[in-house]
Fold each of these.
Amino acid sequence: MNPRALVVAAVVLALLQCREHPREDRRLAQPKLEPPRAAPPKAKPPVIDEPKPEPKPATSPGKAKPVYRVGGEVSRPELIHRVDPDYARLNQRTIRPLGVAILEAVISENGTVESARMLRPADPDLDSLLLAAIRQWRFRPAKKDGKPVRVYYVLTVNIDWQ
């Protein structure tokens, strides 16, 4: 017999045998799905002695002084001593800054500037000089019901360096 004929016969025989068996028999066995199990409880980490926070000084709730906004019953503080920024630090610059910077400061009961922050910066090099100068300003304190109080105060500084 011809070898080619043998190969064709083997293929035909294999195809006939496949048709004799139902398709269900040729399927792979489907694994049974088990319902999901609950995760095992996690082990608690070992307890390590954590440093205890230092006790804070005892203060009564009345000691914390609120910071008010100017307006209504709260009068505005009045500037009594102004310190200009140290422009000498910027002498190397060829362009002189001009414009307006807007800052917000907290003015204490005794008229000093407790803190200040830029709301609208004017110039990156000049902003730190402005903040340093404003922290040295002195005010006649704001008052509420005739008593000095801490206030937020918005300051507008015109920058005109001549």
Note: Strands lie at 67-69, 78-81, 98-107, 113-120, 138-140, 142-144, 147-160.
Amino acid sequence: MRQILLIILLSHFTLTLYSQGTRNKEDEISFLIDQYSLARKRKDTLLLKSILTVGIDQLVSSGEWRHGKSEAVTGMLRSSESNPGSRKLIIEKIRFINSECGIVDARYEIQNPDGTVRKMWSTFVVVSENKMWKITAIRNMLPSR
């Protein structure tokens, strides 16, 4: 019985490693953006810090600039507190600058507690750092129409 369980666990582990190695870059970047959304939802600073580069910068729809990982994380948590609601990022396009840098355009919707929806756009600049995709810049825009 133990041998069967061991074989099942090893098979699962091997398949997991294989599937991670064969995922394409678009899937990896989509997963990164999902992790960003999850970290914001859970206010998970450890996850946020692990997916942002040290030199990240962020321009939010209010016009505030956030420079560096610490300022970005603090600002994200503050923003989530002051603008409650469920957030959703829907990727529209991923464009690669080169094999280690890409641009992600996404619709960014915040479902407010009163039922209204704030519809914005987010652009993420992502880079591959030590074989892991990370966010190095975020630009949020609130369209005027």
Note: Residues 2-22 form the longest helix (21 residues).
Amino acid sequence: MIWYIIAVILSAIFYRAGGLDKETKYWIPVWLRQSWVRDWLCPLFSYSVLLLAWHPSSWLGWLLLLPAYALLGASLSTYWDFLFGWDNYWFAGFMCGLSAFPLVFDGFPWWMVGIRAILIALSWGVWCKVFGNDNVEEYGRGAFVTMF
């Protein structure tokens, strides 16, 4: 439970760090304000939490963590504005949740992947409708992607 709380907090921080510009004075160091920080460190926290509850049953399961990790990183790199014409947090959250789908091939329940996708989509969509502040929005999205 302690790692879960720490991972959610760190995911929120690194998600926000990856969205900050390099010029604004902020408590997060400039070297952490790179987009790769969001895209590749948040999945690390997210899947580390998953591994506390679910252990792959074979070498294939461990291998399937790689595409799941890559899919989450890729999902975090876009808000699908190229497809919708605006930042669609609902769909972006849904795709982040679906990133765990490769784990289904090692026995992870498919319905849990679906529930996770819906929970992240709803939390991202509602959160961003309620709050208009970039700080609050990005900390929240970063926390939700690891929380669920």
Note: Helices lie at 2-19, 35-53, 59-76, 81-84, 89-98, 110-130, 134-147.
